[in-house]
Design goal:
heterodimer; A: alpha/beta; Rossmann fold; 5-stranded parallel sheet; 8 helices; 26% helix; B: alpha/beta; 9-stranded mixed sheet; two-stranded antiparallel sheet; 32% strand; globular
């Protein structure tokens, strides 16, 4: 079996979640190829090779330089003539592209895949992280969209040969126009982050987020928040994790001043390690935690940041 | 404007999830079913758009007879008529095929649904419907306005959002804060009883995936408490025991 992995770029650099897709592809298939659109910084194809791809299909057409759901789906579907399986990382681009490609090439699709089982069975996360389904993909062509940390990233693969790929351009794919983009710059993107520091109502107000940001910066982490915090506009919606927000599966999730309502837990329970810091020893979140600290966030967080800095030397 | 709102019939967000029959069936014992929370946002925005510009709202669910109270609730919130495709929603592909067929027959200008169902969380149906109909699809949509024949919307992306203009028809997966959830009033509930609810047969398509069995996550081993006056110990545990920093 051969597999194609869709690799997304963020400012010319490959996204780590996409490298995980490459590793997933190389794990289930005999041979993995990556497809990437737009200009790449130097050294990036080495990362794709290390993650497990033997080849990179590079699309350099100017019309496809910036993300376009319909056009990317058409191009990937065209490339899929030569492959049995497509692997993508779950994202605001990967999700819609995977759905469209599945229809175009008549493939079975499994989304929210949380672990590698085999080429035709995927472990998918369902009921917002409260359960899993071992899902069989029927048919010759298959598409899987994976969650962060579905595989451990491979870093000892070989080198990937770069091949130019020029898909047909369909005018009908350019109907939707992106008129402007608002994007936080310089921050670690929440769905990509290995470590997430999240704040809740216990922090009392948006003016108290500096210490959360300082801790996140020290750890190279992304910041997140609970639903009430986003509802009160203390923090932007794209930081809200939970049942109706972003679902994250980082290696480490640090919850500060969040009581742990079932709807919040649903968005974070795939995290590998959970630390809960709350002044209420009865906070339900402690039951879902690996490590807990009962204490006032305003005292604990600065101390924690200092201790980590000291440890980093 | 003709609007189609597709809704899911899903367990309440506080439901305890369990399985029966050797982990092959969802345990419905004590589970309350609701309109999918994201679908509820889509429906609420549809009602606002209809109030502003006129038109009609059809609400659709792919499900067996037990989902009719959920469709009636959507009628009480403000949909004009309902379609129930009489089949168990086996996977995203099967559901997308049913919606695409209804959409072709009804010639809707706007097809709205939630960004994802909260049972299978795939977030794939809107993209599949768009592709089946050969029209654009966008998700997750946070704001939506219609000007003439153009939808002006914003879509959440990692770390922010993008603003998009696209001609109708279009398929949109919605999320907050596109609208506030609406609670049916007494007049809505009364009128919902007599609004048309049409039951149609499914297409002959078969699902592209099947679930072998379900699993629950492994239980946590228990929390290790660290004294607030000894935070260095937490750093030590994260570094040397959990090996995550």
């Amino acid at each position: 079996m051969s597999a194609l992995a869709f690799v997304e770029l963020d400012g010319g650099k490959v996204k780590k979640s996409s490298l995980e897709a490459v590793t997933y592809a190389s794990t289930v298939a005999d041979d993995a190829t990556a497809i990437v659109f737009g200009a790449l910084e130097a050294g990036q194809t080495d990362l794709i090779g290390s993650a497990g791809a033997s080849k990179v299909l590079h699309v350099t057409d100017e019309k496809l330089a910036s993300p376009n759901i319909m056009a990317y789906a058409s191009a990937i579907a065209e490339a899929m003539g030569a492959y049995d399986m497509l692997v993508l990382a779950k994202s605001s681009l990967g999700d819609p592209v995977s759905a469209r490609v599945a229809i175009k090439i008549n493939a079975a699709l499994a989304a929210n895949v949380s672990a590698v089982l085999s080429g035709d069975v995927a472990k998918t996360s369902i009921y917002t992280g409260k359960a899993f389904a071992n899902t069989k993909l029927n048919g010759e062509k298959r598409v899987v969209s994976i969650k962060k940390n579905a595989v451990e990233l491979k870093t000892d693969g070989g080198s990937a040969a770069v091949e130019s790929f020029s898909p047909a351009i369909h005018d009908g794919d350019f109907k939707a126009k992106v008129t402007s983009t608002e994007k936080a710059t310089g921050d670690v993107l929440l769905p990509e982050a290995d470590i997430v520091v999240s704040g809740g109502r216990g922090l009392k107000g948006p003016e108290n987020w500096a210490m959360i940001e300082e801790l996140a910066k020290t750890l190279g982490a992304a910041t997140a928040c609970s639903k009430p915090v986003s509802d009160m506009d203390w923090r932007p919606h794209h930081e809200h994790v939970g049942q109706t927000g972003i679902k994250v599966s980082p290696t480490l999730y640090i919850a500060v001043g969040i009581s742990g309502a079932i709807q919040h837990l649903a968005g974070v329970n795939s995290s590998k390690v959970i630390v809960v810091i709350n002044k209420d020893p009865e906070a339900p979140f402690f039951k879902a935690a690996d490590y807990g600290v009962v204490g006032d966030a305003f005292e604990v967080i600065p101390k924690l940041t200092e201790a980590i800095k000291a440890q980093q030397g | 404007m003709k609007i189609l709102v597709c809704i899911t019939h899903v367990p309440d967000t506080t439901s305890k999830i369990a399985f029966t029959d050797n982990n092959t069936k969802f345990d419905q014992t004590g589970v309350q079913y609701i309109i999918g929370p994201y679908d509820d946002y889509a429906l609420a925005r549809a009602v606002e758009l209809k109030d502003a510009t006129g038109g009609s709202i059809t609400v659709l669910n792919v499900g067996e007879a037990e989902t009719e109270p959920t469709l009636r609730k959507a009628l009480a919130i403000g949909a004009d008529d309902a379609i129930r495709v009489n089949a168990f929603p086996t996977d995203a592909f099967f559901v997308a095929k049913q919606i695409a067929k209804a959409a072709e027959e009804g010639r809707y200008d706007l097809i709205l649904m939630g960004r994802e169902s909260i049972d299978f969380n795939g977030g794939q149906v809107h993209g599949m419907v768009g592709e089946l109909l050969g029209i654009p699809s966008m998700s997750p949509v946070m704001t939506l306005d219609i000007e003439g024949n153009t939808a002006k919307l914003s879509r959440e992306i990692e770390g922010g959002k993008e603003h998009i203009e696209v001609e109708l028809p279009v398929v949109l997966g919605c999320q907050e804060p596109i609208a506030e959830w609406k609670i049916p009033n007494m007049r809505g509930i009364m009128s919902a009883r007599t609004k048309p609810l049409n039951v149609v047969d499914p297409t002959s398509d078969v699902s592209a995936t099947t679930v072998d069995n379900f699993e629950l996550p492994a239980a946590k081993e228990g929390v290790t408490m660290v004294d607030a006056d000894n935070i260095g110990e937490l750093v030590n545990l994260l570094k040397n025991e959990a090996k995550v920093i």
